[in-house]
């Protein structure tokens, strides 16, 4: 344990040329000035030590100290499944990280009619409508990894209904055996789409993926008009069409993880069709929404048993080697890995036998190991720090409620480190109001991004994972 003390910090008074006459405390005239200085000369022998009275008491009352304490232990763990049904972005893709291994993500989503009941043909006979195409449109919301590598896309119709409520990343559903789509595509999450409407009109749309599904799906919606026109609830509709599984197969490394915004109005299934009148050909379409107040969706993460992770990670996360975490620690989104941290016991941090010590500032400093940064696999932009509780759940720290500006967790790119203000948490631990539960380090919003980072362990000689404390303690 390394302790650095800065004791007896002095109080600095404001430097003012005439402190007693500052801002009108006295208003001098020649007469009052003569009287004042006469009295001052008479009493100078009695008051020559006036300015020093009490200063020894000020210095002896408070002792402000700084202390750096390495956490007792920290190591990498397998992360629990995460609730992906609450995510604003859904993840699709496959990527291989030379340190963390393989990760694949699929999307399960419903495609809902804008209202019930619905009847696509209207007052026309279903056989009068000719399906031109059925297109799945997914609005991009970002990406992680190398988008110069193609993704192998597969789309199926669901056999199982997506359940209501919170759905976690390990949930799998059965699908129909027939493929609705199979292709390889090159992700272009940064490129706008130019759509030509007629001969002269070009519509420029934000980046999105357009995938043509089997025309038979559109045909089924049109021919089922007698059924769909009788639907009175979305439960009726789910008995007719349960949704889609959008997935990929393994591709060449490193690959990428694509972020899609299914909450965007652009994300939909669009059925294009036409029919003939005596005078003309009428082109039309019908949209099934991927997001409304009733639609269900979530992402499923496949981690391949973590068998493709580096041996260094497997020693900690799979084999329980807690000593290995002294040098390097790992955090990765998508239900992969987190870091578990134990802080020192209160009596190891400071001598608080008087019970009067007050924590002024406590920060957990989390340095990035820059020796293992990958060019195409960027570092997580932010982490989150949580704690355990009496029943084994993981909950927020008190400090988090004060906001991110206070609590921290954002990557400092100049220092290449994260820091967390855990002052309130440590105060409660020091006072005995809160047990010294372990802390858990995760990527922020790990259910909707592929962030990852490698951390310098608490046993490193330079820039280790550490706890920095400033406290005030009376001096006897």
Structure commentary:
With 476 residues, the protein is mainly beta. The protein has helices spanning 30-47, 55-61, 215-223, 225-228, 234-240, 311-317, 346-349, 404-407, 423-431; strands at residues 2-4, 63-69, 73-78, 90-97, 101-109, 130-145, 151-158, 175-185, 193-197, 201-205, 208-213, 244-249, 255-260, 268-276, 281-289, 297-302, 328-332, 337-342, 358-367, 383-388, 394-396, 417-421, 439-443, 452-456, 466-473. The strands form 5 sheets. Strands 4, 5, 6, 7, 8, 11, 12, 13, 14, 15 and 16 form an 11-stranded antiparallel β-sheet that branches. A 5-stranded antiparallel β-sheet has the order 1-2-25-19-22. Strands 3-18-23-20-21 form a 5-stranded antiparallel β-sheet. The two termini are 25 Å apart. 35% of the residues are buried. The model is unreliable at 1-37 and 39-60 (pLDDT under 50).
Percent helix, as a range, is: 10-25%
Distance from first to last alpha carbon: 25 Å
Low confidence ranges: 1-37, 39-60
What structural class is derived from the secondary structure elements?
mainly beta
Q: How many discrete structural domains?
A: 2
Largest sheet: 11 strands, antiparallel
Write down the overall mean pLDDT: 86
Give the DSSP E fraction (strand runs of 2 or more residues). Answer: 35-45%
Judging from the principal axes of the Cα atoms, what is the shape? Answer: elongated
Number of strands: 25
Radius of gyration, rounded?
A: 33 Å
* Tally of helical runs: 9
């Amino acid at each position: 344990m390394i302790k650095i003390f800065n004791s007896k910090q002095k109080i600095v008074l404001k430097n003012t040329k005439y402190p007693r006459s500052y801002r009108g405390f006295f208003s001098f005239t020649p007469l009052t000035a003569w009287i004042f200085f006469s009295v001052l000369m008479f009493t100078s022998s009695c008051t020559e030590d006036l300015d020093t009275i009490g200063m020894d008491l000020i210095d002896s009352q408070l002792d402000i100290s700084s202390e750096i304490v390495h956490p007792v232990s920290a190591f990498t763990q397998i992360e629990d499944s995460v609730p992906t049904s609450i995510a604003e972005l859904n993840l699709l893709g496959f990527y291989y990280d030379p340190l963390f291994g393989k990760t694949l993500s699929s999307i399960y989503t419903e495609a809902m009619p804008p209202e019930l009941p619905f009847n696509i043909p209207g007052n026309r006979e279903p056989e009068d409508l000719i399906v031109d195409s059925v297109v799945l449109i997914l609005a991009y919301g970002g990406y992680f990894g190398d988008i110069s590598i193609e993704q192998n896309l597969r789309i199926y119709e669901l056999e199982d209904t997506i359940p209501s409520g919170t759905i976690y990343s390990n949930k799998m559903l059965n699908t129909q055996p027939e493929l609705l789509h199979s292709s390889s595509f090159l992700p272009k999450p940064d490129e706008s789409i130019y759509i030509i409407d007629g001969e002269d009109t070009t519509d420029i749309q934000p980046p999105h993926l357009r995938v043509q599904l089997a025309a038979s799906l559109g045909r089924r919606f049109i021919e089922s008009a007698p059924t769909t026109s009788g639907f009175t609830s979305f439960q009726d509709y789910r008995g007719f069409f349960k949704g889609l599984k959008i997935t990929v197969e393994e591709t060449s490394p490193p690959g990428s993880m694509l972020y899609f915004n299914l909450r965007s109005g652009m994300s939909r299934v669009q059925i294009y069709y036409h029919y003939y009148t005596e005078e003309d050909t009428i082109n039309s379409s019908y949209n099934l929404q991927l997001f409304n107040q009733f639609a269900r969706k979530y992402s499923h993460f496949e981690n391949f048993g973590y068998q493709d992770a580096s041996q260094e990670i497997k020693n900690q996360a799979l084999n329980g080697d807690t000593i290995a975490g002294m040098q390097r620690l790992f955090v990765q989104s998508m239900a992969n890995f987190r870091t578990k941290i134990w802080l020192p016991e209160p009596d190891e941090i400071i001598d608080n036998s008087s019970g009067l010590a007050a924590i002024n500032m406590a920060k957990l400093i989390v340095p990035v190991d820059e020796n293992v940064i990958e060019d195409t696999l960027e570092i997580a932009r932010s982490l989150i720090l949580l704690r355990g509780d009496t029943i084994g759940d993981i909950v927020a720290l008190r400090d988090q409620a004060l906001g991110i500006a206070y609590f921290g967790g954002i990557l400092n790119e100049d220092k290449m480190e994260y820091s967390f203000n855990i002052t309130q948490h440590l105060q409660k631990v020091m006072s005995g109001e809160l047990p010294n539960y372990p802390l858990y380090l995760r990527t922020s919003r790990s259910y909707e991004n592929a962030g990852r980072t490698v951390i310098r362990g608490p046993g490193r000689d330079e820039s280790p994972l550490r706890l920095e404390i400033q406290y005030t303690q009376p001096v006897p």
